[in-house]
Amino acid sequence: MERIVKHPILDQQPECKMVTITVDGKPMEAREGEPILAALLANGVMAQNITRKNHKPGGYFCGIGRCTGCVMTVNGDPNVRTCVTPVEAGMVVETQDGLGKWRL
Amino acid sequence: MREVDILVIGAGPAGLSAALEAAKHDIQVLVVDENEQAGGQLFKQLHKFFGSERHDAGVRGFDIGHKLLKAAEEQGVEILLNTVAYGIFPEGVGLCVNGKEGVIVKARKIIVATGASENPLAFPGWTLPGVVGAGAIQTMVNVHRVPVGRKILMIGSGNVGLIVSYQAMQAGIEVVGIVEAAPKVGGYAVHAAKVCREGVPVYVSHTVLKAIPNEDESGITGAVIVQVDGKFQPIPGTEKFIECDCIGIAVGLSPSIELVAIPGVEMTYLGNMGGYIPLHDRNLMTTMDGVYIAGDVSGTEEASTALEEGRLAGIAAVAALGRISEKEAEREKAAAWESLRQLRSGPFGEGRYNAKEEIIKRMEVRNNA
């Protein structure tokens, strides 16, 4: 796991509870309350979905909830903007294919 | 259904500043913001601001953010977070709180401070993971403290491109180059100097031709850039591969006008202010009675102008409610305009000053028609 710890201007990041989430079936360490996207980046995962038209890996663009480039299926719900959705312990996160599928 | 005197939409510099102005005059004000935290983009801005003392010159963006939030708390400004304003209707403004609860707020005056969003840039490979907005780099690195990659190539040398490049380097990420289509650097010399001193190559009269995917296309291995001629057309034979795992896109922002555009606020186009902008008068009131705008939604500028426009819209709304004397309102508005004039001067500011005057002129033409 890689995080920006030393910084010339910013203080040290406050201590935070670490939790485990599941990403595509594999466990991943994350800071509780950070955006899901931040946890993915800290773990070197760049792609969040498969694009609808060309079926290629796609990823975030804006990082602040505007563009929907980062959507994934979270706890079974598709199209969750991972850049503005806080991590909770035990979350099940999946790479989304196209527009995703709703649970029936 | 809830009633307030003034509803402010957006808790960034413009919105908070407007709310503080209203609260100062003992007016019931409610601020809503869709984010988890107030402060807009201020908390990711590590650089020091310019201007005079009134503009918090020499103070870092995030410290201005803390100052605003503290003032809002002291003045008892109510801020509803995780709250999306989804529409302005004759019955009131529709809010969705925490993704579930619906509330209609009837406000006597509305100040819209929704900001702006980053422009994408289309080229082969632009949808690949790793091709991201410069603002996203700033958010991930400075706020969430996670790397966006190890080597960044920045596209665009305006202030955003320069500042974000430097801030990535402060966080220990290498910047392998800055690409600029114009023949010279777009941003302030002081920001350009910081990256140039560190030896970052700046490719002027260049553009990005394509991003090169890695083996399974889950990221990128680099970009091909190319020199452009006087008409911004690629010059064959000048292509150059640059290794990187992140391409930052810093090619401007567009005002977030959706909320006011849908109920029919009239727009006008000004390319150097970010595109379509709500027409507004010298009180920052739009073509919809009682609906004001402030900050980047009224033309993309910077946080210091947003703070001042917030004050202006706040005073104008308070005055329209008849809660301060005309004389006092005129004096305070004049001070805000004078302050904006200072921020919109010099080789970079003059164009913005002229553009803002042009919007007001177009509004006058429209109102007199």
Write a concise synopsis of the structure shown.
The complex is a heterodimer of chains A (104) and B (369). With 104 residues, chain A is mostly beta strands. Chain A contains 1 helix and 8 strands.
Biggest pleated-sheet summary of chain A: 5 strands, mixed
**Distance N terminus to C terminus of chain B?**
37 Å
Structural class of chain A: mainly beta
User: Unreliable stretches of chain B, pLDDT < 50, 5 or more residues?
Assistant: none
Q: Helix segment count of chain A?
A: 1
Order of helices and strands of chain B: EHEHEEEEEEHEHEHEEEEEEHEEEHHH
* Main sheet specs of chain B: 7 strands, mixed
Number of helix segments of chain B? 9
Give the number of DSSP strands of chain B: 19
Radius of gyration of chain A: 14 Å
Question: Which key terms come to mind for this protein?
Answer:
heterodimer; A: 104 residues; mainly beta; B: 369 residues; alpha/beta; five-stranded parallel sheet; 19 strands; 27% strand; globular
Overall description:
- The complex is a heterodimer of chains A (104) and B (369).
- Chain A has 104 residues and is mainly beta.
- Chain A is built from one helix and eight strands, in the order ββαββββββ.
- Chain A has a five-stranded mixed β-sheet with strand order 2-1-7-5-6, covered by helices on one side.
- In chain A, β5 (71-74) and β6 (77-81) form a beta hairpin.
- Chain A starts with 17 loop residues before the first strand and ends in a 7-residue tail after the last strand.
- Chain B has 369 residues and is an alpha/beta fold.
- Chain A binds chain B through residues 2-10, 13, 34-35, 37-39, 41-42, 46-48, 51, 54, 56-67, 69, 83-84, 86, and chain B through 34-36, 46, 60, 117-118, 120, 127-133, 135-137, 139-142, 144-149, 170-172, 216-219, 249, 256.
SSE inventory with pairings:
The complex is a heterodimer of chains A (104) and B (369).
Chain A: E1 18-23, E2 26-31, H1 36-42, E3 49-50, E4 57-58, E5 71-74, E6 77-81, E7 92-94, E8 96-97
Parallel strand pairs in A: 1-7, 3-8
Antiparallel strand pairs in A: 1-2, 3-4, 5-6, 5-7
Chain B: E1 2-9, H1 13-24, E2 29-32, H2 61-74, E3 78-80, E4 83-89, E5 92-97, E6 101-112, E7 116-118, E8 131-133, H3 134-143, E9 151-155, H4 159-170, E10 174-180, H5 189-197, E11 202-204, E12 206-213, E13 220-227, E14 240-243, E15 246-249, E16 253-255, H6 258-261, E17 267-270, E18 275-278, E19 291-293, H7 303-320, H8 326-343, H9 346-368
Parallel strand pairs in B: 1-2, 1-6, 2-3, 6-19, 8-15, 9-10, 9-15, 10-11
Antiparallel strand pairs in B: 4-5, 5-6, 7-16, 12-13, 13-14, 17-18
